[in-house]
Amino acid sequence: MTFDDVRRIALALPEAEERLTWDTDITFRVRDRIFAIGGEGASHVSIKASPETQAELLDMDPLTFAKSAYVGRFGWVTVDLGRVEPALIESLLREAWRRTAPKKLAATLDG
Q: pLDDT at position 58, please?
């Protein structure tokens, strides 16, 4: 997986947009709320998750997943793109989008 793969998956979600923030970070948002953060050519991406999902991922593979800096206490997880399976990163991004989007919009995304 590459950051461009993350970008493609994230921007395919309804009403998702990309915005450069803090002069270096690329944020993916839905209705102005961030659900993933990375950077051009980055080897890692930070994705919004529940604390339960974060704990499961850390237990499953602590070399691939870590608590994100600053926001890890809220469930955000940092993913090593060189180690993660494409289907898993897609699932994590879709779930992050669902957690962030308004309920009516989130309901429009297929299971």
A: 97
Name every residue whose Cβ is closer than 8 Å to that of residue 58 and which is 6 or more positions away in sequence: 65, 66, 67, 77
Per-residue pLDDT tens digits for 52-111: 999 999 999 999 999 999 999 999 999 999 999 999 999 999 999 999 999 999 998 875
The 3-class secondary structure across the chain, one letter per residue, is CCHHHHHHHHHCCCCEEEEEECCCEEEEEECCEEEEEECCCCCEEEECCCHHHHHHHHHHCCCCEEECCCCHHHCCEEEECCCCCHHHHHHHHHHHHHHHCCHHHHCCCCC
Do 60 and 53 touch, CB atoms closer than 8 A?
A: no
Distance CA 7, CA 23 (A): 18
| CB-based contact 41:3 (threshold 8 Å) | yes
